[in-house]
Amino acid sequence: MSHAYGPVPRKEDARFIRGQGTYVDDIKLPGMLHGAILRSPLAHARIVAVDANAALAHPSVVAVLTGEDLAERGMAWMPTVFGDVQAVLATDKVRFQGQEVAFVVATDRYAARDALELIVVDYEPLPPLIDPLTALDPGAPVIREDLPDGNRVFDWTAGDKPATDAAFAAADVVVGCDMIYPRSHPAPLETCGAIADYDAVNGRLTLWSTSQAPHAHRVMYAALTGIPEHKIRIVSPDLGGGFGAKVPIYPGYLCAVAASQATGRPVKWVEDRSESLMSTAFARDYHMHGEIAATADGEILGLRARVLADHGAFNAAAQPSKFPAGFFHIFTGSYRTRAAYCEVTGVFTNKAPGGVAYSCSFRITEAVYLVERLTDMLARRLGMDPAELRMRNLLRPEQFPYTGPTGWQYDSGDYPRALRLALDMAGYDELRREQAERRARGEYMGIGLSFFTEGVGAGPRSHMDIMGLAMSDGADLRVHPTGKAVLAVSVQTQGQGHETTFAQLVAEELGLSPDDVDVVHGDTDRTPFGLGTYGSRSTPVSGAAAVVAARKVRERARLVAAAMFEASPDDLEWLDGKWRVRGDPDQALGIAEIAMAAHSTIELPTGIEGHLDASAVYNPPNLTFPFGAYICVTDVDPGTGEVKVRRFIAVDDCGVRINPMIVEGQVHRGLADGIGIALMQAISFDEIGNCLSGSFMDYLLPTSLECPSPELGATVTPSPHHPVGAKGIGESATVGSPPAVVNSVVDALAPFGVTHADMPLTPANVWLAIQAAGRLS
Ligand code: PCD
């Protein structure tokens, strides 16, 4: 019987709603200095000279670091999470607008900013490379002279080409399209920042920083600074959102470390909004050509895709190292197909580095968008209803576990049930009738579907690592004598409520109240090693570790309880949160009583040293595969191109829900993300590489005005390999919603002959799509 799962109010909210959270920028240390970064105004230029003398003469300036200064410390370049290198402060060239060139340290933040203007940099402009489609042209400017392969980052393929070609040859219909998943940005409300405090006497570095992966970061800092790992403490306090932006380390963090070492004082660096949008991790930027092959009656036979991935100036993608295109090759989505094949080429351009998994489970977002757009196009070509076409091709429940044509093994699913529920909730047939009536009146209403499958919870250590570190996570569980527990985990919440849900996981296993369990995270001195939070992996991996540790505690408690009952452990059963003597359920001991006994002087059975504490390291056997069926209803004004999202129906299946309220909150958030991406957002550049999206005036965040109150539904198909059957949910709605929105808008515009339009579907882009189609109804 579950007693701890359920819509428990979030424990962390008590401090957040009272303004008592502690974010990096709230921390003030005695003698702390402030750093600011001088950034390149040019996208591509050789650095001839940097003159910092005037800045150094500023009365409040304590130090200025240039690339040369860092080079002397061996810190001018840093590793990226994907095994490339990235300039911390540029020495040779600048490679994107906004790149870090110098670091000023002053007694206050304003003086540091002012002094930036006193630094004189002599740049020799170089031709910029902005359009990824020209990156591999013979005459293209070379961005990375340090690498052998010109502007090519990687070539990567997955699937079976001959089998796919054969499937296409056998098809009655082939539909193809070029589509762009634009460069987007996670844009957490709290930007990135750090405070470095180097203690030269003890050789210890304490770094407070906005980090989704404190332990992995510690390994990187150790390699880069030469400070031994056990002398480095990373503290990631409350985070105001992460969304993947806080997975990499950034030059500003390292500048703070070097500056603290140089000045002997703590140094804080916090980026502003424009710096965040222009220089920290972008996401997506996939230029795709997709094709789908089918029979005349709508049976999907094959899929293929060719992708050009714009990686910016350094390959700072954050995803398991054996997968340069992330998990894009899950692009057959939720459908049966005979074969599939994809080719992805990554290129360098003069843009900010990144390629982070902004709510995308490592590029599954791009993959879902591709297959869901193609499925809709196929339906249109065949004159079939898109819901019917999907229903016909969805994997069937009896096919699970299902191994797809590009190698994924989906753990569990009942797809038709989820789609049926979404159609029922939407009143689909009625919506189609309404659409026909409106069309007859010259009103443009769209109904867009998407069905997605994600793979989250990286990952099995046999084939998933980041920087060579296998993706396992530890959990330490201590049970105090009075039965109150403290769980220490390696992952780090950014707002998604781990302090509540992880307490629920432990409480459920031990028959405690979630209030009796505190969760410690975000401090490498107090938590076990693990790879951190992203790719919706906390619940699948670290949550599993917490459950395994709790079950170890429960087994120890069984032995102690047996000694207390003077019974054999085999005669005990765990029932209703207590150990009981089988056949005599009134004889019962809860964890609190057993914990007190384990700490007392009673004689314990051999093999039990005392205490109930336990720890675990969890190596997931597979990813978990959440899925969902989404329906978006839009109204489009063809005169202005304005899109209104009228309704959004979302049925999600993330297996067993620990806290359904938090799960729904995650879905709300992800739907807003997806509406923003589909309708409003792109980090764009002019032809010489000026970033045109450096503020929230140009890079729009969706608000309640653009987002309807979503109508949520749930099905529960437990993961067979997760200890409690849970799958991740954090990114699902961001993955699943953009294609539903775009399919809806394109459906609305069908009478004009519009078959596709690239995101973001801003009023201007919608209007242009109507004009380009050139057919009025
Ligand atoms: N859950 C439950 N149940 C289930 C699942 C889940 O309850 N079945 C819950 C948990 O526990 C948590 C949440 O829910 O609390 C979530 O989870 P998951 O799915 O596991 O996830 P995680 O790992 O925790 O997290 C992560 C994610 C991500 S990834 C992202 S982007 C985003 C999301 O998360 N971010 C964020 N969400 C969020 N929210 C918030 N508020 N904030 C943020 O920032 Mo990446 O890769 O990083 O890009």
TrEMBL record:
This is Carbon-monoxide dehydrogenase large subunit. Residues 18-127 form the Aldehyde oxidase/xanthine dehydrogenase a/b hammerhead domain. Coiled coil: none annotated. InterPro entries: Ald_Oxase/Xan_DH_a/b, Ald_Oxase/Xan_DH_a/b_sf, Ald_Oxase/xanthine_DH-like, AldOxase/xan_DH_MoCoBD1, AldOxase/xan_DH_MoCoBD2, AldOxase/xan_DH_Mopterin-bd_sf, CO_Mo_DH_lsu. PANTHER family: ALDEHYDE OXIDASE 1-RELATED, XANTHINE DEHYDROGENASE. One of its GO terms (molecular function) is anaerobic carbon-monoxide dehydrogenase activity. The keyword Amino-acid biosynthesis does not apply. Its cofactor is Mo-molybdopterin cytosine dinucleotide. Keywords: Molybdenum, Oxidoreductase. Pfam families: Ald_Xan_dh_C (PF01315), MoCoBD_1 (PF02738), MoCoBD_2 (PF20256).
